[in-house]
Write a structure and sequence with these properties.
The chain has 140 residues and is mainly alpha-helical. The protein has helices at residues 12-63, 75-93, 99-109, 126-139, and strands at residues 68-70, 110-112.
Length: 140
């Protein structure tokens, strides 16, 4: 086994090996940098959507105005329409929306009558709204 040459004793092969290793390392660093930039972009978009969601929730609580009421007979057709709106907004604005946040905004704006006859479950929770939305998205 040959010992690594350093300094003045380096051969052309050693220098070529070092160049190849440095190029590989540089390529890996570029890949990591691109992944980091993509992740930062996703986080930036999520922050903007969370701030918007928080703003809408605060506004709806402040005003305490009439919130739309969706009867249980119309829940399925509502989610068909809202799913189409979600697609339209993403297409029109050329960006991806976090559908969990989208459902949170929808739930803060509308009251959905529950199918359950269980006491204390007259309206759908945000998690149930998300489930209905996911189910509709799977069917589209």
């Amino acid at each position: 086994m040959r010992a690594k040459n350093r300094g003045m004793n380096m051969t052309e092969e050693d220098i070529m090996d070092m160049i190849a290793k440095k190029k590989e390392r540089y390529a890996r660093q570029q890949t990591r940098l691109e992944d980091l930039k993509r992740s930062m972009n996703y986080n930036h978009n999520d922050i903007k959507q969370l701030e918007y969601t928080l703003q809408k929730l605060k506004r709806s609580r402040k005003k305490k105005r009439f919130r739309g009421f969706i009867s249980r007979q119309h829940v399925s057709t509502f989610f068909i329409r809202i799913s189409r709106l979600y697609d339209y907004l993403q297409h029109r604005l050329h960006c991806s929306f976090n559908y969990t946040l989208f459902c949170l905004i929808v739930n803060s704006r509308y009251c959905f009558e529950s199918r359950s006859q269980t006491a204390g479950h007259k309206q759908l929770s945000p998690a149930t709204v998300l489930t209905y939305f996911k189910r509709e998205r799977a069917e589209v």
